[in-house]
Design a protein that fits this description.
Number of strands of chain B: 12
Number of helices of chain A: 13
Strand content of chain A: 5-15%
Helix content of chain A: 40-55%
Order of helices and strands of chain B: EHEEHHEHEEEEEEEEH
CATH class of chain B: Alpha Beta
Structural class of chain B: alpha/beta
Number of helices of chain B: 5
Mean pLDDT of chain B: 93
Low-confidence stretches of chain A: none
Radius of gyration of chain A: 18 Å
Strand content of chain B: 25-35%
Oligomer: heterodimer
Shape of chain A: globular
Shape of chain B: globular
Number of strands of chain A: 9
Structural class of chain A: alpha/beta
Distance between the termini of chain B: 10 Å
Largest sheet of chain B: 7 strands, mixed
Mean pLDDT of chain A: 95
CATH topology of chain B: Rossmann fold
Largest interface: A-B, 41 and 43 residues
CATH architecture of chain B: 3-Layer(aba) Sandwich
Order of helices and strands of chain A: EHEHEHHEHEEHEHHHEHEHHH
Helix content of chain B: 10-25%
Distance between the termini of chain A: 41 Å
CATH superfamily of chain B: Class I glutamine amidotransferase (GATase) domain
Largest sheet of chain A: 8 strands, parallel
Low-confidence stretches of chain B: none
């Protein structure tokens, strides 16, 4: 019997297998092994973590292939990699390398200020960021198999992740109370495909897995996002910009599994050393904020 | 009937929903005390290294082995299949391999079909499901979803093979790869019935619960 690859079910299915887990940013094989050993359910292969991208400025692009391959070689868990928004050739390269998931990410400098990638054209699944339900459904409409609510990456400040997770989850709750005739004008208002608005109203959740990302630095931050209702978390700079990455990584993994158990969160939060240095969002000039990228 | 679902990481909610649909009470298991008074356990798909590490850290391996010795039914899907196996073939050794419960007499190869772009769906013939099928369902193939899936490389004499994957054109001819098996009260599938709307495998598992 025929084997079908690259289907919507198979793409969304991998995201379902990542649920309840932590996806960690890593920049080399050694960090990837530390992440895997700590219990990460996947790693994101990067050239620089967002905190360094923010500090160094300039154009941030897809990582060099040898970097990604080094990380793929080092671990058996899924490996994700980022391409620039709209840069479908970077995405083609990542697919050719065999990465398991592509993040079309606002953390890199956008290559197209109007269009995102047509993700249906790929066999590899994509994850995309969003700040609200309209943005989430536009990305799903383009073929994203997984969504992450955006935080302000590289800040160690969870406030934007909370804002955007609350926005998406709150809008979904409102949507489930609407009368059928209200759905079309709501779809128009938020700029989302009508069919997906109807689907979310029926399901009471996004039709794909939804993680939180950006600014998560402590086990309590991670558990906070889980209790708000996301399916898992991405941790970027929060691990390898802290003083004891291996221990912090393991603590965040345990806090995500036991997110409803404050005694365990307290226990794993002990003796972790310094978290990454934090940044006030108000201190970041508007043009340097990453979360607003994406359309 | 109370069925536990190991809820350390992965697709455990999908299994819960299937059980609710069948009118069965589902309990999320994260600590050893959650295993008390269960009639059976499902170990779901997810990352086997992550689930394995957390199971060791929170002292769950030994109580699950105890459950099996007591004859309670256990079903592993994908990552759960890996954890139930007695051996890994092509493992990398050292710390990278997940700890195994070693309950079933079979060896398994992780990520045996390649990376995510090689994940696939296909139909399987599973004669054993006829025992729990309605007249409408009888003989229908089971639609199976394989995601970075493992495969069963060898089975011991006490293991009953429930389903083969037909050989792909690129593979040597033969019976095909074993992707579902049973050993008494223990069941494994390399694929994900919980991602479909077909509850036959869940009903088959419940039929093993004494």
């Amino acid at each position: 019997m025929e084997r079908e690859t690259g289907t919507e079910t198979v793409k969304r299915g991998l995201a379902q297998m990542l649920k309840g887990g932590v996806i960690m940013d890593v920049t080399n094989a050694e960090q990837a092994r530390i992440a895997e050993e700590a219990g990460a359910c996947a790693v994101m292969a990067l050239e620089r973590v967002p905190a360094d991208i923010r500090a160094q400025g300039g154009v941030a692009r897809m990582s060099p292939p040898e970097k990604i391959l080094e990380i793929m070689e080092a671990v058996t868990i899924p490996v994700m990699a980022k391409c620039r928004i709209g840069h479908f050739v970077e995405a083609q390269v990542l697919e050719a390398l065999g990465v398991d998931f592509i993040d079309e990410s606002e953390v890199l400098t956008p290559a197209d200020e109007e269009h995102h990638i047509d993700k249906h054209a790929f066999k590899v699944p994509f994850v995309c960021g969003c700040r609200n339900l309209g943005e989430a459904l536009r990305r799903i409409g383009e073929g994203a198999a997984m969504i992450r609510t955006k935080g302000e990456a590289g800040t160690g400040n969870v406030v934007e992740a909370v804002r955007h997770a609350r926005a998406v989850l709150g809008e979904i709750r409102r949507l489930t109370t609407m009368a059928p005739e209200e759905l079309m004008s709501y779809a128009k208002e938020i700029g989302a495909p009508y069919a997906l608005v109807c689907e979310v109203a029926k399901l009471g959740r996004l039709p794909v897995v939804n993680f939180a990302a950006g600014g998560i630095a402590t086990p309590a931050d991670a558990a906070l996002m889980m209790q708000l209702g996301v399916d898992g978390v991405f941790v970027g700079s929060g691990i390898f910009k802290s003083t004891d990455p291996a221990r912090r990584a393991k603590a965040i993994v345990e806090a995500v599994t036991h997110y409803n158990d404050p005694a365990i969160i307290a226990e794993v939060s002990k003796g972790l050393g310094e978290a990454m240095p934090g940044l006030e969002i108000a201190a970041i000039p508007a043009e340097e904020r990453l979360a607003v990228r994406g359309w | 009937m109370r069925i536990g679902i190991l809820a350390l990481q992965g697709a455990f909610i999908e299994h819960e929903k299937m059980l609710w649909q069948l009118g069965v009470e589902a309990v999320e298991v994260r600590r050893p005390e959650h295993l008390d008074r269960l009639d059976g356990l499902i170990i779901p798909g997810g990352e086997s290294t992550t689930i394995g590490k957390l199971a060791v850290e929170y002292g769950l391996l030994e109580p699950i082995q105890e459950m099996s010795r007591a004859g309670k039914a256990i079903w592993g899907t994908c990552a759960g299949l890996i954890l139930l196996a007695s051996g890994l073939s092509g493992g990398r050794g050292e710390h990278k391999d997940p700890p195994l419960l070693g309950l079933m007499d079979l060896t398994v190869a992780r990520n045996a079909f390649g990376r995510q772009v090689d994940s696939f769906e296909t139909d399987l013939v599973v004669p054993a499901l006829n025992a729990v099928s309605t007249p409408d369902e009888a003989g229908r193939p089971f639609h199976a979803i394989f995601i970075r899936a493992p495969r069963i490389e060898s089975v011991g004499p006490g293991v009953e093979v429930l389903a083969h994957l037909e050989p792909a054109l690129s593979e040597v001819e033969g019976d095909g790869t074993v992707v579902a098996a049973r050993q008494g009260h223990l069941l494994v599938t390399a694929f994900h019935p919980e991602l479909t709307a077909d509850t036959r495998f869940h009903r088959y598992f419940l039929s093993l619960v004494s």
